[in-house]
Amino acid sequence: MAELRHSTAARASNSPAKRDSDASAASSPFLASPSTRGSRGGDDGGKDSHRSSPLLPHHNHKRVHMLTSPFRSLLALEDPRSPAASTSYRILLALTALLLAAGIFCAPLLWSRLNTPYLCHKEGITLQCPETREPPSLWENPRAATTSWKPCAERRSDEPSDVPSEKETSGYIFIHAEGGLNQQRIAICNAVAIAKTMSATLILPVLKQDQIWKDQTKFEDIFDVDHFINYLKDDVRIVRDIPDWFTEKDELFTSIKRTVKNIPKYASAQFYIDNVLPRIKEKKIMSIKPFVDRLGYDNVPMEINRLRCRVNYHALKFLPHIEEMADKLAARMRNRTGSVNPYMALHLRFEKGMVGLSFCDFAGTREEKAMMAAYRQKEWPRRFKNGSHLWPLALQKRKEGRCPLEPGEIAVILRALGYTGGTQTYVASGQVYGGKNRMAPLRNMFPNLVTKEELASAEELAPFRRHVTSLAALDFLVCLRSDVFVMTHGGNFAKLIIGARRYAGHRLKSVKPDKGLMSKSLGDPDMGWASFAEDVVVTHRTRTGLPEPTFPSYDLWENPLTPCMCRA
């Protein structure tokens, strides 16, 4: 038995694990050395020779040996004087220093991210939002360098004139340009295009006085007639008035025999050739009404669309005194701080009529909502019915981004984009629904908010008050000349401005807000300001008014790229 015990002890002392353990103990200052253990004397030394150090238990021996050389060196488990350990030690120190530097750099960013305030908070009737720094790309189109387009709707010098003479003309067409200034502008462009399509003579359009605008403006009160006729003389024959030989002038306004009706919306050029031209040839003079959106886009020859751009951007000029006053207002906007500063133009569409027609739901008291319901029932009884179906419809429209932005909502978007409270802002709008209370959040975040009435004296604006369209023309031109144009809802004014800025130069920035994003973000109570601002910036990188490729049923007035622009 003694021999058996002796042989077992010998095998244990010669095992690889035992040899590694002894080697580690010899090289580590954390483990007791053999001489130390031997000095403890007696049988205890023999027992202690098979024990692990209390600082490094026996069951951790395998973990220690699994450590890489640099970690073992750092923990003093390996001799640091060896070449391998020294190199590994330096590498470990370098990695540690790199991680420490990265942590110091990222700590403030992480801290600010975790402690950013929520989206906005309301104090009374004002909306408080976090301040943002103004990035350098706020006043210019960030992707302008990637495009190379130029306007090319003007008539080419080598292009022959094919205007028929008075004897060769197919006949005369007469149209009523209905609606507001910008709807009338589109109707005039379409009238020239139709006259060209049918080789007819165009009688100078009449600006119809409708019930909404209640304006008595004539064509010559707002546009330069001489320039209009002379500029288009090689495209279409235009006369100022009905020919003298036609004695039944009243029939153009009242008689069904002299009126072409039931023209479908966005009709093709071929429709006019097949259905309208024969009647003009028969009667010689015909009136066309209604004439709102009665000519399509992608179902019209390219040259006709190019002619429409020529009329819109070159032939239709406001009278000189309107242009001069608009230049004064734009100059005052750029010098409000005592030095030259950029300015933003904001087209705010939140009039009572627009709010009612949208059939969207907006914040307000019960009394306000009841009054709006009564207004909608009176103005649009067929759509209103009993009102029970409107609530789910309003929610769906808001999710799809089809509701006008409130003043407070556009203020939040602009602040998220980086525009500060010092931004000089020109506002073009009608009477805002809700008055001062509704405007309070916007004015709170952008106090440098002005209208033409605040930029000009009552005496300066007096000549323009005789015609509502003259005041609208001032807003149009000041917005057109702005450094940044921002719309809040669709409409002829906004799309004509964006289209003209695209045509004039791709460096002009025009912001078309993503209203669907607002619905999603403002409905999330846990979204922080930093996350919201990042979403807004990323989403609007491609909504800055650059020329875009056209698509079926595109809107020529908002995006004139394909027919009216060419590569620079």
From TrEMBL:
List, as start-end ranges, the regions of compositional bias called Basic and acidic residues: 40-51
Q: InterPro entries in the record, alphabetically?
A: FucosylTrfase_pln (IPR024709), GDP-Fuc_O-FucTrfase (IPR019378), GT106_glycosyltransferase (IPR052272)
Q: Do the record's keywords include Transferase?
A: yes
- Main localization (coarse): membrane
Where is this chain compositionally biased, Low complexity type?
A: 23-38
Q: Does the keyword Transmembrane helix apply?
A: yes
Single Gene Ontology BP annotation:
fucose metabolic process
UniProt KW keywords: Carbohydrate metabolism, Fucose metabolism, Glycoprotein, Glycosyltransferase, Membrane, Transferase, Transmembrane, Transmembrane helix
Q: Which CDD domains match?
A: O-FucT_plant
List the residue ranges of the region (Disordered). 1-62
- Specify the protein's topology with respect to the membrane: Single-pass membrane protein
Where does it reside? Membrane
Give one Pfam hit by family name.
O-FucT
Q: Could you state a single Gene Ontology molecular function term?
A: glycosyltransferase activity
Which family does the similarity line name?
Belongs to the glycosyltransferase GT106 family.
**UniProt protein name:** O-fucosyltransferase family protein
Q: Which species expresses this protein natively?
A: Paspalum vaginatum (seashore paspalum)
